[in-house]
C-alpha cells in the first residue's frame, strides 16, 4: 500500500494536480447543477433531457482522478468523486455503465484500503454498494469479461457463490480462454464445494496454459478440498517448480504438506523465505502452524511475535500472538496482548475468538 502524500506548501506534483483539479471542477459543476432551480429571468430553467448525464470528457476526468486517488490511498476523495458522479447520472443515460464501474471500484477500494478506519456496518454498506454497481456495469457491457469478472469477485467477497458462478460464466462466455477468469472461477467453485465444476474449469485452464504454474496450483487446491493430501502435495510441488518466485504456490504446498502429516518440511520451506515476506499474516499462519505441529510451540510464538512487529494494527495477528504465548505458558504476555486487542477498533470478533479459545483450554 502506498503512503498518503504529505501536504506541504510546495505545489503538488503534476501527477496529482491535473486529475484532482479536474475532479474538483467536476464535483463543483455537478453540485451547482443540482442546486440551480431558476434562471436569471426568474423562470425555472428547462428540464434536462431524461437521459442526460456527464459528458465523455467529464467521465474521462473523473476516471483519471479516481484512479489517481486510489493509487495514493486517498480513498475518501475517490469515493466523493464517484458518489457525485453516480448521483448525477440517471439510469439509462449514455455512460451509465461506465459510471457504475468507476463507482464500484472506488467504493471497493475505500472498503478494502481504509478498512481499519471504517465501522463494520459502513464497510459492509460500501461492499454491498460496490457489488450492486459492478453488476450494473457488467450488464451494461455484456461482452466485457473484465467487468463481469470484477462483479463476480465482489459477489465472492459477499459469499454469494451462485451469483458469482453466473458472473464468472458470463466473463468466460465473453473470453473463454481468459486465465484470470478461469483461475478465479475455479477457486470460487472450490470455496463453494462445487468440486466437479472446479475440475472442469481447472481442465480448461490447463488446456489454455499448460505451462502456467496455476494449472497444477488449481489441481492442488481441488485435491486439498477433496482431502486427497498426496495428490495435493504432488501438484503443489509441480506448481512451486514451475514458479519459484510466487509465494502463493509455496503456501499451497505448505498446506498440502501439513495435510499429509509433513509439517516439518512445510516449516523448513517457509523458513527459507525472507523475514519480511514470512511476516505477512497469511504466510505466518502457515509457518507458525507448521512449527506448532512439529512440536516447536516456542518457534510458533516467535513467528507470531515477528508478524506482530510488522503488523501492529492487525487484530488477527495480535489475537494469534496472544494465543501462541498462552500455549507456551507465558500468561503475562498473552494477557497483555489480549488487553491491547480489546483496545483496538473493530477487534470485537477477534477478542471473542481468543476468549473462547482460552475458556476451552481451561476446561481441558
Keywords:
single chain; about 375 residues; mainly alpha; Serine Threonine Protein Phosphatase 5, Tetratricopeptide repeat; 3 domains; about 75% helix; about 0% strand; disordered N terminus
Main sheet properties? none
Give the strand tally: 0
The rounded distance between the terminal residues' Cα atoms is: 42 Å
Strand fraction: under 5%
Principal-axis shape equals globular
Helix tally equals 19
Mean pLDDT: 88
N-to-C SSE series? Answer: HHHHHHHHHHHHHHHHHHH
CATH superfamily of the largest domain: Tetratricopeptide repeat domain
What CATH architecture of the largest domain would you give?
Alpha Horseshoe
Class of secondary structure makeup: mainly alpha
Low-confidence stretches: 1-19, 31-40
The radius of gyration over CA amounts to 25 Å
Helicity level: over 70%
What's the number of structural domains? 3
CATH topology of the largest domain: Serine Threonine Protein Phosphatase 5, Tetratricopeptide repeat
